[in-house]
Amino acid sequence: MRKLILLLSVLISSHVRAQPVNKHGQLSLSGTQLVDKNKQPFVLNGVSYGWSCFHPRFYTKGTVQWLLKDWNCNVVRAAMGVEPDGGYLQDSLRSMNLVKTVVDAAIKEGIYVIIDWHCHNIKLPEAKAFFIEMAKRYSGYPNIIYELFNEPDQESWSQVKAYSEELIKAIRVIDKKNIILVGSPFQ
Q1: Pick the CATH number of 2-181 from 3.40.50.720, 3.30.360.10, 3.40.50.1820, 3.20.20.80
Q2: Which of 22, 100, 102, 177 is the right S-S partner for 78, CB 3.0 to 4.6 Å?
Q3: What is the tens place of the pLDDT at every residue in 1-24?
């Protein structure tokens, strides 16, 4: 009886803590449809963290575990605060460590993670350095989704496109598979 209870506990625990990346693998696009490794439609359900510079206390392994277990998230979004006080431009090491903590925890928990450059202005040299470092560190993991420019607000599409093409080239030299999101301006 004791062995049966232990077995049931393990089965229930593994079902509750299923790892979406193990099941669905490398995501890709088929036309405009997000699909999993078996080319089956896939939907991401999750939470975006607030800007890293405003909400660093949530950028923890424990928060990722809690979001998976309690909210059943299959994705989290680590929003790198770039321009505000305490953001990447002022303290890149601290900012990078916050984002890496979330990304590493998401990989360990087997969920997808969006690495978001959360900036309102084009900062091409800084964004390029950031994404090159992220791609070097995480290119082998199917968990990763890159988001190049969260909220282009005053930029034209031609500006966003040129910026994005540069970043995509830099990332693709290192990471040929993971999805890259490109935000569009309000115009």
Answers
A1: 3.20.20.80
A2: 102
A3: 454 344 334 434 444 457 999 999
